[in-house]
Design brief:
single chain; 353 residues; alpha+beta; 6-stranded antiparallel β-barrel; 24% helix
Length: 353
């Protein structure tokens, strides 16, 4: 065979032919990778606990997909014991002043205008009528505060030159020198934040006698409460109606809950919104709709066949107050578990008997 014929049968490798071969290899790799990814997605869809691919309702599907990540991070708010807020009081926040006489003694104003200390259990301190020991913290400018009695509105705590404590009326506490208290001493101790308050009237003259107290702020927490829990065991979607409350309630006693009117708005706002806590939800946006009498509402939602519905409502607490959101909910849907399904069958069997 002639040498030229050999060259025709086996042409030499060129840059162009090598490039085409690389393109073909990359194309094959891309196809294989795509199939692998699709296979993994299909496997995940089969094993996914939510099973959202089975839902035919488009609106429900969108809702489930967006809420799925939130459902995994829902914080079930039980009893609020450990305070989640800052221990430094904020403007218009409700506080209690513990006396140095001993643990469980609190400064409070009397009907004759004097301020005395009295012993009371801290566990029920916030449940007492009319907030007899509660004070409202006001930022009065120039590093001073004004302490307003919650029991006697517009009456502010002051000290005289003899060191006696009393309250008196003032329509404009920021402009008075006797109502304005300067924090002369502030220390973190085991019992709480220890503060010494001195009247601004005498502070500049070197007078240092005044009120010594341990600052107590009732626990503040934020989380979610379950308002709906229902399973659809039927082969068809169902419309489920659940009820929830929105607004502020005030705990009275151990088990009883009373509604909260607009007159208690300042305390609830001072504790929850003005409490200095780093809440995830903007509670200030609900001021006009939820700080009122507690209201019961009803909502319906479609539950696909074989699904378990749980609805969580955002809640913030402060001492005896609980604020249920009217805007923030997390809706979770998962497959009905085998245990739940068997329990349902047993109940149905008992009814048939």
């Amino acid at each position: 065979m002639h040498r030229d014929d050999i060259h025709l049968i086996f042409p030499p490798k060129t840059k162009e032919s090598t490039g085409k071969k690389k393109v073909k290899v990359m194309a094959v790799v891309a196809v294989v990778a795509t199939k692998v990814v699709l296979g993994l997605v299909a496997l995940w869809m089969v094993l996914s606990p939510t099973g959202w691919w089975k839902v035919k309702d488009v609106d429900t599907l969108k809702l489930m997909m967006t809420q799925e990540s939130k459902c995994r991070s829902v914080k079930d708010l039980g009893e609020c014991v450990k305070d989640e807020g800052t221990q430094d009081p904020q403007h218009l926040q409700s506080v209690y002043l513990g006396s140095t006489s001993g643990l469980g003694w609190w400064w409070y104003p009397t009907a004759d205008g004097w301020v005395r200390d009295w012993q009371h259990d801290v566990r029920t301190l916030t449940e007492t009528e009319h907030g007899w020991a509660r004070w409202i913290w006001h930022d009065c400018g120039e590093d001073t505060v004004c302490l307003e009695s919650a029991k006697y509105p517009h009456h502010y705590l002051y000290t005289n030159r003899h060191g006696n404590l009393a309250i008196s009326y003032s329509p404009a506490p920021q402009s008075e020198d006797w109502t304005r208290m300067r924090v002369a001493v502030k220390q973190k101790k085991e019992r709480g934040t220890y503060m010494q308050f001195v009247s601004e009237r005498y502070y500049r003259t070197g007078y240092r006698k005044g009120l010594a107290a341990y600052l107590y702020i009732p626990p503040r927490c934020e989380g979610f409460r379950k308002v709906a829990d229902h399973s659809n065991h039927s082969p068809e979607p169902i419309s489920y109606v659940y009820s929830y409350e929105k607004g502020v309630t005030r705990k009275k006693g151990t088990f009883k809950t009373t509604t909260v009117g607009v007159s208690m708005k300042m305390e609830a706002m001072g504790g929850i919104v003005k409490g200095g806590i780093n809440f995830q939800h903007a509670w200030t946006s609900e001021e006009s709709t939820t700080v009122a009498n507690n209201q019961v509402h009803h909502t319906s939602i479609n539950i696909p066949p074989g699904k378990h519905l749980v609805v969580w409502q955002r809640v913030a607490t402060y001492g005896p107050y609980e604020w249920r959101s009217a805007m923030s909910f997390v809706i979770c849907m998962t497959d009905v578990t085998r245990g739940t399904d068997n329990a349902h069958k047993e109940m149905k069997h008992k009814k048939n008997k």
